[in-house]
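Board notes (copied after class):
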Amino acid sequence: MADIVVVGGGLTGLITALTLSHSPFQVAHVQCQQRDGDGETIRTTTISASGKRMLETLGVWQHLTAVPTPIEALKVADGEPSAGSKARRGNAFDLEWQDQDEPMAFVVPNAALLAALERHMRNADVERLTNRTVAGSTIVNKQAELTLVNDKGLIESVICDLVVGCDGPNSLLRKSAGIRQHKLPHRQTAVVALISTEQPHSNAAFQRFLASGPIALMPLANNLMSLVWTLPKQEASRYQACDVNEFNMAITAAIGDELGFLNLQSDRLVWPLKPAFIANPTADNLILAGDAAHVIHPLAGQGYNLALGDAAVLLDILCTASARGLPASHLSVLADYRHKRQFEVGAMSLATTSLNALFTTMPSGIARIAGLGMSLLNRSPAKSVFSAIARGGILAQANLLAGKLPQRDERWR
């Protein structure tokens, strides 16, 4: 019988199971029935510098099937671009971060990251329960009992000390435990696609805050970029369905002429944005991680980095608990996880929600004042603080984020 069961077959579930396999506890991984996966060839994930160190330490980074693209600069602008940005610099990309020592972050295709994680899971010390769906969860004699349904419709039970729920924003485990989710006030949808640029992107990421929502371009190889365009639902649906030429002109007009003319290179996907915050991501014998525990606006590209932080912090806590002779579900484990994750998750949730609200719901005069504030930030010492946060490992500290595995004490295994 496993001590810990990780539930979730996506990027978060895989990295969490792989990470916890380095704890002194026996780990099992319930990988739910596969989704259609159509979006994984288009979607990308932004990995912070500390996240890269973690993936390198686990042996995942070295075996990515696609070379990660470094983000060597981040350029930000607010307001509609003018025709010919040289004529009016106020809405050009005046706010810029660069790091001379190392890239700020890296962009990885989801398909490549999934393949690398799956490959490493085959050799990990993890019991794999594939093609299972969680039908229910109860507490029996101070242990968690999961009811699973396999792909043949057969029902089985799995008993463990601790369940780690990585089952996404609509988490059944969260709902079964009665954990409250506070949904944040957004009515936006993201249009996601791959585009090519007329001018070289030079490994820079671009983000422009518009009244309808932010538009972001993340660099990829071969002068491709990953587009995440936040819009009201009706506009997003219209741009998903419109003619390719119309779409190309619309995204070029929205981002400005910095990169020349933009051309669609993939299907267009739409993702309703439903940011949410959970004050307490724990319950008896349960810890939530990834989107099951927190969903933030994609404008900062920090969603998966929060999930990496969840896994890295939990590994350290479990190693400490084991060294003290405590089970994985001990109340101190739950309390430590709750305490150590609340600051980073809360800060990221507040920052992304506030930035999006400031530039999409405030009157234009206030937005212009905010734009002035961004220009002042570009010349202030605080700029280096924001850059450090973007690199990761500042708000959340863990051994893996520093590039090392925690010491294991095998006496209690």
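Comment from the instructor: Confidence is low (pLDDT under 50) at residues 85-90, 362-373. The longest strand covers residues 188-197.
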